[in-house]
Each structure stands twice: as structure tokens, then as C-alpha cells.
Amino acid sequence: MNTGLFTTRHALVASAAVLAITAAAPAWAQPATRDYDLAAQPLGQALGQVARLSGRQIVAPTALVAGKTAPALKGRYTADQAYEILLAGSGLKLTPVGDMLVVQSGAANAQGEPSPADAERVTEVVVTGTRIRGAAPVGSNVISIGRAEIDRGGYATAQQILQAVPQNFGGGPNETTSGYSSRNGAPNNTSFGSGINLRGLGANSTLVLINGSRPAGGGVAGIFADISIIPASALERVEVLPDGASALYGSDAVGGVVNFVMRDDFDGLETRLRYTSADGDAREAQASALWGKRWASGSITAAYEFYDRDALAATHRGFATEDLRSFGGADYRRAFAAPGTLMVSGQAFAIPRGQNGRGLTAGQLIPGQQNKADEQRDTDLLPAQQRQSLYLSVKQDLRTDARLFGQVLIAGRNFDRRVTGSSQRTVIVPAANPFYLNPLGGTAPVSMQYDFRGDLGTPRTSGRVRAYNGLAGVSQDFGAWSATGQLGYGLQRELYRTDNGVNTYRLNQALADTNPVTAYNVFGDPGSTNRATIDAVRGYSGARTRFETWSAAVRADGPLMSLPAGDLKLAAGAEWRSERFEQQFVTYLSAASRLRTDASYPGTRNITAGYAELRVPLIAATMNVPAIRQLDLSLAGRVERYSDVGTTANPKVGVDWRPTSTLTLRGSFGTSFRAPSFQDLQTGPAVTGYQPIVVTDPKSPTGSSTVLAILGNSPDMGPEKATTWTGGLTYQPRAVPGLTVTAGYFDVRYKDRIANVNANAYNLLIQRDVYADVITEAPSAAVVAAYYASPLFYNPTNIPASAITALIDLENRNLSEVRQRGVDFDIGYEMRSDLGLFTIGLGGTRILALDQKVTARSAPVDVVGTVGNPAALRLRARTTWSQGPWSAAAFANFISDYQNQLVTPRQRVKSWTTADVQIAYRVSDSAPRLAGVRLALTVSNLFDRAPPFVEYRTVTSALGYDGEKADPTGRRIGLEVVKSW
Q1: How far apart are CA 610 and CA 612, in angstroms?
Q2: What is the pLDDT of residue 926?
Q3: Same-domain status, 344 and 472
């Protein structure tokens, strides 16, 4: 499953540049044998015909194949055998690079071919998981989702592509969790972007690359890479390395690496139009154009994509409600409505409907009842999104051994979503209010539990994202070695604002107003108040963020020496990166005028790193070693220094062992890390504070003790650290051509994770042994006095310093541990018959254990298969057929049942299975005007399966499904028209 990004100094043969791997088959599947009957012809044409017929990708520079003639090819062969026959006697050789074959010059021969050092050749191959050109990663398994598979899946966005990968968990920052979940960093997604969360270890623990380079971060503090900016139509493939890789790439590569490889070196013009519809007016439209031009010494590729999607209203999905009684759950609606509920001396009086609060009497009130409203009503499950993306790639030879390259990705995204917010409030109505009513008599202020949405409208969050990522560099060959230097820049700016909030300062003024024309009236139906008064009370809040990064890198790789089993190769490099995050808040919710505040994030951080990777071929088939046909070893290491959190070093070792030609065994060991984010390092009054509180204490005679809680971020924050072991195999039996079986075991130990124990603050002293690391018993009077004297001290109940018996550290700090063990697997089979080419396969991930420890001293708790964590089993089955211009594909997606621990007693959540299908037709090239047209009809969630019911409780609301494991959209029907000009 290893593929590469090719930068060639010559234009590639157009027919061979097409990624011809069948979409539903795994990217590493070997093609079956087939019959060939090709006449002798120019070599480039012959290679192209085999590539089209077999689906086996080959890349060949024009200069190498020009002027050469291929012999006739007749008989039944595998694709590799066919290529070898065509190249026989040409002086050229095939070099495997992951799934691909690269045509290169061979040694000098009778026809006078030059040696490799002097020949024109492919100059750079970059494969995710290794820094060595022309090599696949050793010991690791890379999942590749090619262009054909992207098309057959009917994916419109980069996030849809990753949602189909079993190793990816939907928890964290993405569209379906933002606003609903407080887990896995979802609240940091203020602009409704989309992150990737491999293994469920966190979106900030998955490294995202675009053509091998880091983009600028998105969300609060740039805490995740927002893949929504990537134009899916411009993707050549997506490579997923579900293995720790900090030894090569540095921070964040704990759960793995996802590399989005763009369609560079494209030649021609391709346009796409797509329209998708789902129940509830959830429309999706997409238009794109890809243009490229290649010439003898370079190429240019440009892509533009427009994407527009309507919001998915909660009212169109029955499970999007706080009243879950019809599903067997509870009613979580609160006693806040319009008309509201009057609370006097602890007694409730429901305000009657159908009146405007003028002339309302105590006799009309409904004692002992409460009016309730569903806060999920009139919200959106998915935001409206509109995006434009522009990608440009340029490559140019300076001379035969030097090349310039550059790329730019610019994207703009606008969003709009109706959200839950602070519309449901308890307001204090003074007797001076002209609509005041106290059913118990007197003139004391009364409390009204009121829902302001009927007056102000549903809170709505809207804004924009602007992303700019680019790099430029030069490569220079030195014989068999190549060196590259490049400069990079990234900037992501985000702006969001939530309107229709309640300005409490203006509201209190309006409630105290004695004029019945302008006073706020909360005693009637919505709209009973003067419109000008309502508009005056309308508030908002928002923020601007800016994440900027500069980078520079130099690297070189090539052979060190020849060994009996092949060349000993080395790659080494150095990198520098500078990052800065800024955020400014704007609020008009509690004052007469808007307030601007700057978040107290650290300044610029600088990162320097050096790495090296050594590939050692130990044994080759030509050495005739029993039980070892091939044995390769990889050694890698990286040292990285952060200006704010220190230095870390991470090694990795990988081994590939092929005991036979049909079986490959692999294994790896390595360490990885995640550096604290800007959010983790934030200081100041916004996050730091000291407050005395009373907590339960079984050792106290009274059963409770007064402690001083320390809030904020620890000043001693360091990197999170992980150790990963993997082992696996790939089996392709000769007895069953076309069958490939891949399986792998992984074991991740992730320690020093940044966390806090706020959720258990009032129970820490009950388990002193578990929480000993965050408890300081009997602090000195001087220590307590210093906290009390701090400007960050907060003491709303006036607890004296002498009452403090302990300090409890509730700061974010390197505290928790996670250990995850599991198995990845994939079985694929390909067969050709007179009826066409058929493929069938099944891939998935089975998590055996996900043990979490709140602190290093606490007992581990297995949380696999619970809300907020990955399910134990996730599967994706596939089958495809193609014959002539027709093709069809079907997929089944399965997520196993799990437990809902948010309710007591725990509830079992049912498994969820959905099906996707596509049928496509490609118009014959001989058809006038329609040549090059492909029509595809895709239906996702064919049987319109609703997500399984989950009594999903949040801090202030609830709804009936789990957005981390299910998609609320339902059945989607899409039509796409692709035209190659």
C-alpha cells in the first residue's frame, strides 16, 4: 500500500501517468493475469496500453522511451510480466516504488545505453513514511486511496474521503460534533472545519501534510489541520500511515500521518460538475476545473474548485430533539420557554399562551406547571458551507541536473449555522416593570425563566476562513545523490461571530424601564415587546484568529555504498519552522458597548530539527539464503528543539522480511511526541485562577474540607510522548491469483498526555492514592498567603486562608496515560472473466483495548466502545465491476455496538450499517462532442438508515444521536459529470 509523489525532469507518457488502480481494490492489490495481443509499436504506446488494460500503474519519462520499439506481446501474463517483455533489450529497467513501477535506465549495454549516473531519469520520488527516494517504507503499512477510488466513492470533499477510512475516528473537530460535543477538542472548532483523528488519539495527534508539507493550523490556537480547505477534485491520492512517525516528521505524528498528494504533472483539461441532494433540502453543488501543461523541461498544473452546501436543519431529523421520550429516553427540555415560567419563592407558575402580557392577572397563571422549549428546535445539524480553492504547481528544469519547483494552495470558506446558545435565561423582573406580576403578592423582584429565541431569533454563528499555503525550492543532483532546499509559508485566518445573543446589561435596563412602550415584556408570547427594545437587547460575540508559520528545509539522499543485497541508502535533513498564533475576542453581551480583548497566548515559537534515515538491504533473493528471500532494515531518528518546551529525540526501527515470494512480514518500533499547543501554553486571567472550595473528605470529622483549587495551565508543560510497536503481513498466494491478504497489529503507549482532573475536583480527597500527584496536603501558611495575595485569586464565599487544608492542582498538565492495542486487516480479491473485471474486499480495524489512566497512579479503565471513544470494530466492504464503458461499485459500512456511559444505567447503542452504490458510464472517445465524458450516479446510505439512538447529553442540552460515530444526513443522491478535453 505504498505509493509515491513523482517529480520528473521530463514530461511523462500521458497514458502511463494515469492512476489505473481499480477503485474498490486495495491500493496494494496485485492485478490478475490477463490475455494480451499487442502488435509491435513504439514503446511508450505499448506501455500505455498495458497500463490501461491491467490497471497496474507505470511512470516513464518520455526521453527514456522515445525512439524505442516494443516487441509484439501475445499471451496471458501479469502486468509486471508484460512490462518486462516490452522492456526486454531496451536498456531500461523497472523499479518498484510502492504500488507503482518506474522506468529507469539500466546499466550500459550492447546498444550503447548510458549508465544510470549519466542517464536521464526520474529525479525525485517521495513516499509517505520514508525520506528515501525510490523506496517504500520499511516495517510500516501505508493505505493509499487513489484517484479512481475517490471517484468511485463519490466523495465531494477531503473529509468525506477520510470518513470512509476505518482507522479514522469521527470524534474531535468536525462539522457534526462542533456545538454538540465537548470531547476530543471539538469546542476548538469555532469555524466548523474538519480534522482527522487517526486511532481516536486526537486530531492534534495526527499529522496532516499536503504534498509532504505541513499546512497552517486551524481552529483555536491552530490546534488541528483543517482539511476542508483542500479541493478534492485536485487530489491524486490520499496516503494514510497509521503508525507513529515522529522519527521522520516530528511533532503530532502519534496516531499517524495523512498526506494529501495533489494532481501535479497533469496534462490536459478536466472539468467536473456535481449535484447532490438529501432529504431536508440538504443540497450540495460542486464545480471544478483542472488544467495542466507539460513540456520537455517542466510542467504547470492549475486547479480551481467551487463547493456549496446548504445547512441541514434539525427539524428535518426526528432524532435532533431534547425530548427523547419517543425513543425510550428522557425529556431534557428545560423550563425555559416563551411564554416563560414565573418562579416566586420556589413555586412555579406557567405563563398562559395566546396573550401579550398586558393585563395579565394572577388568576390566569397555571400554578405548579412549567413551560418547556426544545433548544434543538430551529438549529442546524450541519452548517451551510461555501468554499473556493485554487491550487497551482510549477516545475522547471534549470539544467539537466537541477530543478525549480513551487506550489500554492489558496482557499476561502464561508459558513453559517443556527446553534444552541444562551437564549434560555433566568431574568429578574423588578416591580417597576409595567408588566410586573407577583401571584403571591408584594413588590419583591420575581424570576422569569424565559426563552429569547422568539424575540431575537435563533443564535446564528457565521464567519469565514482564509487559508494560504505555499512553498518554493530547488533540487540538485550530484550523481546518484540528490539534494533539495525549500522555503514554505502558511497562514490561516478565521473570523466568526454569533448573533442573536442577549446583552444582559441592555436587558436589565429594559426590564427596569417604567415606560410600557419601551420596557421589556417577558410575560406574554414572543414578540410582545417593542421591536426597537428587542433590537437594543440583541447582543453578539465573536473572535478573530491568525495562525502563521514560516519554514525552511534542506535534505539529501542517495546511496552510501553497495552491499551484496543492494545499495545502502541514506536520507538526512534539517528543518526550521516558526509559528505564531494570535486571537482577539469581541463581545457585546454584558456591557453598554462592545469589548475587545486579546488572548494571552505565547509569542512566536521556533522549532529546529535534524533527522536521518538509513535503509539497509540485508538479504536479497540472489543470495539464496534459506527461508529469507528478502530482508530489509530501516533505521531513523530525529532530534527536535522547541524554543518554549525543550528538546525531544525520537528513533524508529523497521524490518521487512520476505520468506517467500508470496509472503511479506513486517514490524516496527518507534517513539513519537506531540508538543504542547499554544492553547496548552496560554496564561493570564482568561485561564489562570485560584479559588477556595469545599470538597468531600472522608478523613475530616465533618466529612468535608476546604482546599485551594489551582486553575490554568502548568508552567512546566512538556511534550506528550508515545511508544508504538507494530507487526503485520501481506500474503498473495500463487494458487489464488488476484488475492491479497494484509493484517497488522499495533500497540500504542501514550503517556504524559495533557489533561486535568476538573471533572473530579470535589471528589479528589476520596481517592488520595489515585490523585496524589495533584494534591498537596497541609501547605504552609506562607504558600497559602501568596495565593491569596495574587490578583488572580477569586473568593466569592469569603473563605479565610486559615481554613485551607490542602492544595488541589486542577491545571492542564502532563498527567494522563493511554494504551491502545488493535488489529488492522484487509482482504481483497480481483478476477477477470468474459463478463468483466470484478473485485471484492473487506477492510477494517478491531480495537482490542483502549486503556485510559487519569493519572499515572490511577487504575486503567478500558473505554473502547463508549461515547467519546472509537467503537471496537469498524468495517468497510467493497465490490466493483467494470466492463467496457460501464462500471459499478457497492460498499457496506459497519460500526459495532457500544455503550452509552453518559446515562445511568448504561445503555447499549446498536450497531450501524449503511450501504453506498455507484454506477458510471464513460462515453466512447469516438463519440462526437461527448468524447471524454464520464457520468456517475452515486447513492450514499442507500437504504436511508437513521443513526442508532443515543441518549446523548451535553452540559446544557441533549439530542438523540452520536455525531462522533454517525452522519445525520441520511440518504444522499448525487450526479457527477466529468469531461476530459
Answers
A1: 7
A2: 79
A3: yes
Please provide residue 656's backbone torsions phi and psi, each rounded to the nearest 5 degrees. Answer: -115, 130
Of 184, 177, 228, give the one whose Cα is nearest residue 204.
184
Dihedral sign from CA coordinates of 573, 605, 208, 665: positive
What confidence tier does 60 reach under pLDDT thresholds 50, 70, 90? confident
DSSP conformation class of 866: B
Question: Among 421-425, 623-627, 716-720, which is the least confidently predicted range?
Answer: 421-425
DSSP state string for 196-221: --BTTS-GGGEEEEETTBPPPPBSGG
Residue 503 confidence (pLDDT) above 90: yes
Identify whether the C-beta of residue 822 lies closer than 8 Å to the C-beta of residue 851: no
Residue 322's pLDDT band (boundaries 50, 70, 90)?
Answer: very high
Q: Which of 96, 126, 156 is the last residue of a domain?
A: 126
3-state helix, strand, coil in the chain (%, to 5): 10, 50, 40
203-260 residue pLDDT tens: 999 999 999 999 999 998 899 999 999 999 999 999 999 999 999 999 999 999 999 9
Whether residue 883 sits in one domain with residue 829: yes
Residues linked to residue 817 through DSSP beta bridges, in sequence order = 853
Stretch 936-949: mean pLDDT, rounded? 97
Three-state secondary-structure class, residue 887: strand
- Examine the domain organization and report whether 782 and 823 are in the same domain: no
Q: Are strands 704-711 and 312-313 parallel, antiparallel or unpaired?
A: unpaired
Closest CA to 138 of 568, 550, 464, 483: 568
* Cβ atoms within 10 Å, residue 152: 25
* pLDDT confidence of residue 19: 25
The tens digit of pLDDT for each residue in 960-970 reads 999 999 999 99
Strands 538-563, 73-77: pairing kind: unpaired
Cα separation, 882 vs 54, in Å, equals 12
For residues 236 and 102, membership in a common domain is answered with: no
Contact predicate 260/617, CB 8 Å: no
Q: Judge whether residue 912 has pLDDT over 60.
A: yes
CATH of the domain at 275: 2.170.130.10
Residue 472, pLDDT score: 98
The Cα–Cα gap between 977 and 285 comes to 12
Which helix (H) or strand (E) segment holds residue 159: the answer is helix 158-163
In a domain, 27, yes or no: yes
Give Cβ neighbours of residue 675 (< 8 Å, ≥ 6 apart).
Answer: 251, 252, 607, 642, 645, 648, 719
Whether the pLDDT of residue 707 is over 70: the answer is yes
Percentage of the chain with pLDDT > 90?
Answer: 75
Q: How far is 725 from 723, CA to CA, in rounded Å?
A: 7
Shared domain check, 278 and 207: yes
- Phi/psi of residue 45, each to 5°? -65, -40
Pairing of strands 206-210, 256-262: parallel
CATH of the domain at 918: 2.40.170
pTM above 0.90, yes or no: no
The dihedral sign for the CA sequence 903, 906, 908, 912 = positive
Dihedral sign computed on CA atoms, order 771, 772, 778, 784: negative
Residue 728 lies in a domain: yes
For residues 338 and 443, membership in a common domain is answered with yes
pLDDT tens digits, 334-393: 999 999 999 999 999 999 999 999 999 999 999 999 999 999 989 999 999 999 999 999
Q: Is residue 795 part of a domain?
A: yes
What is the rounded distance in angstroms from the CA atom of residue 485 to the CA atom of residue 65? 30
Is the confidence at residue 57, as pLDDT, over 80? no
Cell 508543560 belongs to 717
Strand partners, 472: 406, 487
Same domain for 788 and 872: no
Return the residue matching grid coordinates 395579565.
360
Residues 260 and 324 in one domain: no
| CA-based end-to-end distance of the chain | 31
Torsion angle of the four alpha carbons 204, 210, 212, 215, in this order, in degrees rounded to the nearest 10: -50
Number of structural domains, the chain?
A: 4
